Amino acid sequence: MNVRSNRYMRKKRIRDPQLAFDYCREIACDIKESTLKKVALQVLEENREVLVSAKGSDWEHHNYAGGLIVHICNVTQNAIQLAEFYDGMVNMDLIKFCALMHDIGKTFDYKNNSEFPNKNTPVMNQALLGHSFEGACYIAGKLETEYFKGTVHVTKEYAKKVITQVSHCIGAHMDGFGACAKQKMFEVVIIGCADKIDAYLEQTILEDREDSFVIGTGEVFYKSFALWRERTSS
């Protein structure tokens, strides 16, 4: 890991929304591809208020004010560490940018809805499109503006490939339900794994049983024998 990365990578997961936002901004500053860097910083700044106040989901994970940016930050840091482990097989700029942007579509869904559990009917975008599609379209539009209407001097072919691959990594990060396509790049596999890990390990605990948890999805997850023994012997 390079020296710059050490400034924003932490061994413990982040829980403070403002700190998470600051780390996300540092990661965006570390992106080498100039347009991806510019758009990442622009999107973070334009959506700062929503990112640091919105929840991460309706029921399942990070159901608290600021949970969205906390989730985004932790997913991005996990994705970077996975990508560094597989050095040479993935593009780090694509990992950083798309991990930062993977749930940006939720800013369209949770602006005025912070209740837990969600007692309101989902907004139309959320119900009909889903945050993966919303995010992919939103970021594609931002990149198109920079590449085709700005002062960036790259070929149209290069710009189209970047936009297509970014759209894929954001749109397919959920790998299954809610995804726009089947995962077809190593980068989106890494981001998807980091996303799933953080979402599951930060689930809302609906019921804490002796040997298991009922989590926000309604699933039962069993505790390790060590946790169970510690609890029963105390």
Count of distinct strands: 3
Based on helices, strands and strand pairing, what is the structural class?
A: mainly alpha
Oligomer: single chain
Distance between the termini: 42 Å
**What is the helix tally?**
11
Instruction: State the low-pLDDT regions, or none.
Output: 1-5
Q: Which percent bin holds the helix content? A: 40-55%
Query: How would you sum up the global shape?
Result: globular
Q: Name the beta content range.
A: under 5%
Q: On the 0-100 scale, what is the average pLDDT?
A: 87
Rg to the nearest angstrom?
18 Å
Give the strand order of the largest sheet, numbering strands 1, 2, ... along the chain.
1-2-3
Largest sheet: 3 strands, antiparallel
What is the N-to-C succession of helices and strands?
HHHHHHHHHHEEEH
Question: Any overview of this molecule?
Answer:
The protein is mainly alpha-helical. Helix content is 55%, strand content 5%. The chain has eleven helices and three strands; from the N terminus they run ααααααααααβββα. The chain has a three-stranded antiparallel β-sheet, with no helix packed on it. A hairpin with a 4-residue loop joins strand 2 (212-215) and strand 3. The longest helix is centred in the N-terminal third of the chain and has 19 residues, at 67-85.
Keywords, please?
234 residues, mainly alpha, 3-stranded antiparallel sheet, 11 helices, 5% strand, globular, disordered N terminus
